[in-house]
Amino acid sequence: MLRVTESGLYCDAGDFFIDPWRPVARAVVTHAHSDHLTWGCGSYLVSDRGVGVSRERLGQYADRVEGMPFGEVRTINGVRISMFPAGHILGSAQVRLELNGEVWVASGDYKTDPDPTCDAWEPVRCHTFITESTFGLPIYRWPAPRDVFAGINAWWHENVAAGRTSLLFGYGLGKAQRLLAGLDPSIGPILVHGAVDRMTALYREAGVDLPPTEYATAQRGLSTGAMIVAPPSADGSAWARKFGPNSTAFASGWMLVRGARRRRSVDRGFTLSDHVDWPQLLGAIDATGAERVLVTHGFTGPVVRWLRDKGLQADALATRYEGERDDASEPASDATGASPDVAGDTSAGVQ
To answer: What residues make up the domain containing 92?
Structure first.
């Protein structure tokens, strides 16, 4: 039902793309991160919960965005399309396609951990499941989010006692808002970088409950006990240095690995991901009941081998999605909106 083209995952029968990496006439989009939401498409269909952040990211193309509620069915050229929560960020969706009784689901990015800032992931039964595998290795097993946030707030307390500002880095869309939701505002003022501030306002407009925040100015940032949430690109910048004595931390799934913490050169690393870990990935696949699984972006090989050993049809699928990176605020794009290929993905035919 879907096949890989030079522009992305294409549905011939419906004449539309899912998360294309080049501009196309009609795009069905799982979520608003830049490796899934490409500038310049003729139209965009997203979940209604994701309309605000998608329009913000698309700028001049904002008027081309249309939303549909989770669970609603829309038919395009005979293909029945519906969306279900993916639990990744605000508005993130799994896309369900049905044609002549056959059902495919494209997961986009997803997680099954609880997160008060977005709709919880729902299993969707299907014949073929296209899944991400950003953290598709057995070593990736996330600690409980409540324990992670307890550690973040304890680190903040320590910095207040030492007279340091706390700089906490997380992606400006999704991760930053999840971090804000877990902070204890009784510890001190919470300030945000401009990129985080814009997205946080959209989360609030969507009804997400977040603690009070202020725009991070140099004067306010020097306040005793301030916590500043910023995108990773701000780490080590002139902007960050203006806040005086500080302690830095980065929140990401990659922080589970000691080498990743060293590469980031931050004082603390907190393991918090908006993607499934190994047991969640396998559990999610099992919950779909899929007979065929196509695995993309991340550690595709180990996942494919494990699934084949369990008797499923499984193949790696070459795409240009990047998942969660530890070296930038968001996956980089070239002038066409396409992201670089990810090492580890190998081609697989998709019909």
So the answer is: 3-140+274-316
